[in-house]
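Session log. Operator J.P. requested a structure for one protein chain; no other inputs attached. Running the standard single-chain path with token output.
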Amino acid sequence: MMPIQLNVSTMLERAELFYPRKQVISRTLNQVHRLTYKEIGERTRRLSSVLEKLGVEAGDRVGTFAWNHHRHLEAYFAVPGLGAVIHTINIRLSPEHVVYIINHAQDKVLLIDEDLLPLFEKIKDHLHSVKAYIVMSDSTEVPSSSLEPLYSYEALLAEGDPEFQFRKDIDEYSPAGICYTSSTSGIPKGVVYTHRALVLHSMAVGLADTLALGETDVAMPVVPMFHVNAWGMPYAATWFGSTQVLPGPRFTPEVLAELISQEKVTVTAGVPTVWLGLYTVLEEGNYNTGSLRAIVCGGSAAPPSLISRYEDRLGIPFYHAYGMTETTPLVTVARLKSYQQSLSKEQQVELRAKQGILVPGLEMKVEGVNGDVKWDGQEMGELLLRGPWIAGEYYLDDSTDHIFEDGWLHTGDIATVDPEGFIKLVDRTKDLIKSGGEWISSVDLENAILDHEAVFEVVVVAVPDVQWAERPVACVVLKDEYKGKVTKEDILSFVAPKFPKWWLPDDVVFMDEIPKTAVGKFLKRRLREQLKHHLTKPS
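Structure written below.
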């Protein structure tokens, strides 16, 4: 008996077959589109046929440089449907890194949003493998540009075959997608996702004890589609027949609030900085959020105060999840067990502020200096992972084999595990502060400071210290109404009861903005560089 191969295109085919009337609601620069899965299927098949005519073959890479919209979703399925590999390029990377990853991946064709074309006009002479550019816009006209050859996405689709048949001879271990790390340090590294990994990951997203995504949901991925496939939500939502709301280019918290209210969004996913901004808008505005059953937060640790604000003040359930580019990304979800529902509110929030329990299908271990750590919530070690959607190597890079030693992904995240199996990330290995030979968790300090009513954002980093080797410094952005009214002493006295004296930051630096990575994570590396000569008082 021939084994049945897991294949990305089968997820779209199921939506076409069983949910042809369900919609994808897509916000672009000029309008809001409402397309059924039947129409999305036809357009995707047209795109596959067009790419084939342009010379794209099995194994070739096709790059996308785009926001979250229906054309990007079509590429998600059209490219793997040919046996080719979709390379979702981070639009916020530096031009130098964009050039590097396109050349490293050897992209043959690039699909680019119209408002993002100017970058490629500047870097085109440095791109060695690209044979064609396709501009994605609502128009069939090709804009004036120095890019050659440049095609209109909509004009090409008009000539495509709406009955094109996706390839069925694809080995499930073949690459379907590639995403490069967001490069908070060093050169970006490519993570390859196989057909098998994407299908199994999508199934995990639908499990009742993870995100429980299903047909009745209206799913809005706010996390960019260029970042770990928007955490897999577009693939899973298509497969399960969920209505999708794609927020498009340059959205604001107000735009998100309006989409949630107007389209009755039930589940949405993004990083903490997005939810901090949205919370302020929802608290001050008049929006109907009654449809929301879950806000999914990942990318970095969500402070307990943020969870409480959404649930206690707005009545919106808040899911804390964890993953990495290398894990496709879902690894853990902080969902309470049945018998934990009777715990006090404070105990429940404390548990749900942790990264949660490993999702079915994956394996983990946490290795400390003396081997596997005790599940006591205290002993720290590095989190190691393996499973069917965990990467086993970086694309064309054998210099980092130690990260995948013995078949385990060494995450670089320092964690504890409590007796119930809840993982809590204490810090990144590079972000732990070693002061006088003892470890200080920057994450714990950040969460405590963020509980102060005046604080909008906070990052704690290590700065060199002659006496103690390293000392913590807190970088704080105050809410507008508190600027100039809150002092360093106010912040330190607020958190002092929660920590040993030697844990307290030596200084509080007030900032207008904290630098962030291309996907909204705080850029601690840059802050450490800015503050490396910062004078702190001896403790």
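Operator note: The chain has three domains: 8-213+225-249, 338-428, 433-531.
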